Batch of 2 targets.
Target 1
Amino acid sequence: MRVIPSALRFAALSLGLVAATTALASEESQLVDSINTYRSQVQRCGGQASAELPPLAADPRLELPANSIGDLQQALARAAYPMVNVQAITLSGPRDAQAAAKAVQESFCQVVLDPQFVDIGVSRDGREWRIVLARPLLSGRLGDWQTEGQKVLEMVNGARAQARQCGGQSFAPTSPLAWNATLGGAAQDHARAMANNNYFDHKDRDGRTPGDRAELAGYAAQQVAENIAAGQDTVRKVVDGWLASPGHCANVMNPQFKEMGAAYAVDPKSDAGIYWTAMFGAQ
């Protein structure tokens, strides 16, 4: 289940500077893309398999000078980023985004595969790189889990109404999903279990899979799939993240699914703060 006379010379110099700045920005953007591609696939890290993770959102407030030193939390406070948790990766030596991505994957996989982080900023000064990953304070005003679950359903059905490319798969528009209360309850139970027990996985602490949980809830399924998310505090962030992740996107667009239930749960003591589950099914 389940990233040129005197005035003219001046103009030429200005253009050259613009081109150089664009090239630097491009390298930084390429590194963000590479990290998100890495997160979108199951990886082996620290002896464990990661879940497919939604992409990190680029936030300019996290683009701190690569060669700066000092308190990271104070720097983010000055940038007006209301964070709950933050971690920075400093690299010295990579000549381009490809080399930087390789170094990140080899030495910092546990940081970039941590589901609690939802935002990223990358800065570069020559061969010095700084990658900042952070989770902001929850700012969304959420209703109860059924209300927000219905909003997830509405956004998912809006996505299903349009043709879409999910990684290497093309999907035509397809029919909307119906709300299923049994799947909704199973989704809420799993979201609550992840929040209260501080983990992020499709397999729960008793080893049960989404199919197992659907069956235990009384859902007689021919087919079941599950999307999960952590750290995002609005339905739009959650669904946009799923649509940007090939595996999650494929579940959203799968025409074989006819029903869905979705929910969220919050626990301030957990790493990510808020966890989401959507279960897709066909009976």
Note: Residues 1-24 have pLDDT under 50 and may be disordered.
Target 2
Amino acid sequence: MNDDAELIAAFFRLAARDGWRGATIAAAASEVGMPWPEARGRFATRGALLRRFGEMADQAALDGADTEGPPRDRLFDLLMRRFDTLQAHRDGVLALLRALPTDPAMAAVLACGTRRSMRWMLDAAGVPTHGLLGELRVRGLIAVWLWAARAWERDDSDDLTGTMAALDVALLRAEQVAVWLNGRSEG
């Protein structure tokens, strides 16, 4: 495990125990035996830590992802890989989600990161993201992700059955909208 991953894992453990506002990067650094100046150099803010966590989730999704099959199946695989990363830090991520309504700055960081991530997921699945239609696809996948994330929040199964079901339904609906949009743009 690299130093970023160790520090992030410690931060999310603290967030699970003390709440999102109660967790600090300095305390996480102390927990993993990292000097505070080094931790500060890695993550000057919680937002920087959250951005790096999102990048790690993206990388985990992309590493070894399916490159065969229909885009919907590839997106399902990619997004479930992202949920696997969240699941490893579940209680801390849930603490973050509970804090978002009263932390607009963190909500903005998360929104921007989610947009970047969903563009990566579409690109990895071979779905074009350029132009107006591409932007609609990105926004559609954000909606799919948020729908599935709400299910993930409530899913206490070991194998994330409820999350998979919600993601499957959301991707099916998005696919139906995409077919409709493609038909409209050709007409």
Note: The first helix runs from residue 3 to 18.
